[in-house]
UniProtKB/TrEMBL annotation:
PROSITE patterns per UniProt: PPM_2
Native source organism of the sequence: Caenorhabditis briggsae
SMART domains linked to this entry: PP2Cc (SM00332)
Domain PPM-type phosphatase per the UniProt entry, residue ranges: 21-327
Name listed for the protein in its UniProt record: PPM-type phosphatase domain-containing protein
Top-level taxonomic group: Eukaryota
């Protein structure tokens, strides 16, 4: 396995990572946490280039997510590393090419398993069927990827899946990648239909690395047997931006965040993030507060909407990862934030935060307060704090 490449690099000091495990809601409408976490994330630099990435694993394991994260870092930073002096169009081209190399490398790593599967499929005994089943469990694992590179004042977003990168300013948030790869997206829907496939037979995501039963063995599936090509592809979108001086933060949201918010009928996710984002003592606690806020919103919606017989929300909440990046201010003093690579949320309490100047209000999750004098006072204080910024 491709492993250990990420650990060779220094963590970025301008970012924090928050995570929330997936769960199912019990009959008592309490979240029962799933202890398996299928995704991985990173925030590192090689001295000249900063990288922030979320790799959202799916279909039963984190192997693919870890493989892709480490191999992509190798492709970008070690195998003929990208030069910070390259013009933006060349960086976009190299970023895309190296991601596609990563997808090919992952396929090659599964060559032995695919060959063994082919042989075992000719063995119709119970042992042969069990062997094929075990291999299928491995090769169906996949991962999406949302990766941001910052080179000086240039920002690049690579997306293969339905993760979301947002630039935050004091007014309107900017959605950096507009083409999310799921069947609700018009372009993806058209691509799938052009293959002769009914989009309703395709589960999200529609772009990913791995998921070999849908990317390379798709003809074995009844719904895809006459398709002109695979319903799931690993081709990424790469976009370039010059960092706007008005941008104050970059927020990366995993596929799970996007899916959970869509399920509770959030139509404008960037605005939802802007409303809920409040800077805390550390970058990590800021990211964790945002992730916890999304989790509580989903739980509240499950409780309230399922009391209405005309509404239904799944009793399963997807795992979530948030990366919060604080962009430097012009002529700003040194950054006093501290950060760790990730944060663990129990959803029963808030992580302790470190000491900070008294002017900054600590993170307290207030989701669930919708009316009354406390709600009015909370809105007044938040508005006042935002005006100070």
């Amino acid at each position: 396995m491709e492993d250990g490449f990420v650990d060779q690099y220094t963590a970025n000091t301008d970012a924090g990572i928050g995570t929330v495990h997936s769960c199912r809601y019990s009959k008592q409408k309490k979240p029962v946490q799933n202890n398996d976490f299928l995704s991985c994330s990173t925030s590192i630099n090689n001295g000249h280039i900063k990288l922030y990435g979320i790799f959202s694993g799916f279909n039963g394991g984190d192997y693919t997510a870890k493989f892709v994260m480490n191999r992509l870092v190798y492709e970008l930073f070690q195998e003929n590393p990208i030069s910070p002096t390259l013009p933006p169009l060349m960086v976009c081209k190299e970023f895309r090419r190296r991601f596609e190399n990563t997808a090919e490398r992952y396929l090659l790593s599964n060559a032995d398993a695919l060959n063994e599967r082919l042989l075992k499929m000719e063995d119709h005994s119970e042992a042969g069927k069990n062997a094929v089943s075990e291999i299928n469990q491995k090769i169906r694992q996949g991962t999406t990827a949302l990766v941001v590179l910052i080179i000086n004042q240039d920002l690049y977003v690579l997306n293969c899946g339905s993760g979301l990168a947002i630039a935050m300013n004091s007014e309107n948030p900017v959605q950096l990648n507009t083409n999310l790869h799921d069947k609700d997206n018009v372009k993806e829907n058209q691509r799938i239909r052009a293959l002769g496939i009914d989009p309703d037979t395709v589960l999200n995501p529609t772009r990913a690395i791995g998921d070999l039963q849908r990317t390379h063995l798709f003809e074995e599936t009844e719904a895809f047997k006459n398709a002109k090509g695979p319903p799931v592809i690993s081709t990424p979108d790469v976009q370039y931006f010059r960092i706007d001086p008005a941008w104050r933060h970059i927020v990366l949201l995993s596929d799970g965040v996007v899916q959970n918010l869509k399920e509770v009928e959030v139509e404008n996710i960037p605005t939802e993030v802007s409303v809920r984002l409040i800077e805390d003592h550390t970058l990590t606690s800021t990211a964790q507060a945002l992730a916890d806020s999304f989790a509580r919103k989903h739980l509240d919606a499950f409780i309230t909407m399922n009391d209405d017989k005309n509404c239904f929300i799944s009793n399963h909440r997807e795992e979530m990862t948030v990366i919060y990046v604080k962009l430097p201010e012009i002529n700003a003093p040194g950054d006093f934030y501290e950060t760790v690579d990730s944060a663990f949320s129990t959803m029963e309490s808030t992580n302790a935060t470190m000491a900070d100047p008294p002017s900054r209000v600590p993170y307290v999750d207030a989701v669930g307060f919708y009316s009354g004098p406390n709600f009015t006072e909370m809105k007044r204080l938040i508005t006042m704090l935002k005006k100070r910024k």
